[in-house]
Predict the structure.
Amino acid sequence: MTDNPTNPAAPRDRWYVLAVLTIVYAMNIADRFSISTLIEPIQQELHLSDSGIAFLTGVALALFYVTVGIPIAALADRASRRNILALALAIWSGMTALCGLAQNYWQLLLARFAVGIGEAGGTPPSTSILADKFPPARRPMALTIFALGASLGAWLGSSVAGAAAERAGWRAAFLVLGIPGLLIALVVCLTVREPRRGQLDSAPTPSQPSTLRATLRLIAGQRSAVHLLLGGSAATFWSWGLMWWTPTFLQRSHHLTVGQAGQLLGPMHLIAGAGGTLLAGWVMGRPAAADPRYVARLLGWVTALATIPSIILYWVASLKAATALLWVFVPAVYFYIGPILGLLQNVVPANMRATACAILLFIANVANLVLAPQIIGWLSDWFAGSFGAGRESLRWALLLLAPTGFWAAWHLWTSGATIREDEASATGELVQH
């Protein structure tokens, strides 16, 4: 199957749909990431410990995000993915705006629960739709462009949220980010068409939607899929676990305000993050990237090398040195997102793609929204209480997390061992020896 614009099997609207879904993904990340920028002012107003604010900002969203994500994805493998996505966007945007109206801990907690429910219906339908807009060889590239939404969203959640909080308080940041999402949900509902499942695969599309048990059974038998799931989850535990607390680290250890921390990190996410994503997209478009082994091993090398500056930046005392290292680390955070999503879409059949994506998101978000923030929060409280580390306690907690990037790199490299055979089995492509 070739990606020929004149080929009737190549949907003419695929680039428009890719652009719209990338914006939707940006809103997903912005609404999720903004609260990490606002940790310090929220913590001070509500008088919470580091472990307490970690539960409110990370675990509260993740509890519903990870538990309802797989059922919603299973529904997306049966029903209209476009409608599910539009409804989910409307829910998480509306609930984000309600976070800006919260007057106490419990109101904010309940709103965060609802944001998690909405966000669970975002990425799995989107990646499944894109898999039916682009042929197998172009999916890693398309999903890498889709991943630009992460850098755009993180910029919105850093710079825009930080500036709004600096001018009008932390509640204003949620209103500024939540309300536009309601309009975008309407655009999705009215202009994105639902594609036919598996229309660009060589293998015949199964007539019946798959069950969760069948998807788990298939993944368990695909060695590459197992390592992609574990590698992607370990990578988010490492990278986004660190980034979650970095605005607070800059405020405590380098004495920046919430607005200054947002303005420092925002351009890194937008410029360096987009640059890292575009570089990954360019690499995915190269002839060598048609071999998934090349992609898997490249991801392993990039992740391993990026782990080194991620350790040093939390060690140095100089803000200038930490800033320079962040400009190296941040692009690597985005480099792996799209390629992993694209590789995973190719090693499972068309009727399992939304569910497989949801399984990845389930494990990855338990890692980076539940485990990483909470572990760092507990460690920071422990260092502060038992060792008298004071405001530097967070630095030591982050230094313990940073080396886990090497663990992620090993899984991503190892996924390349059988990925060609697994991809051929799922998509019906012939393996070229």
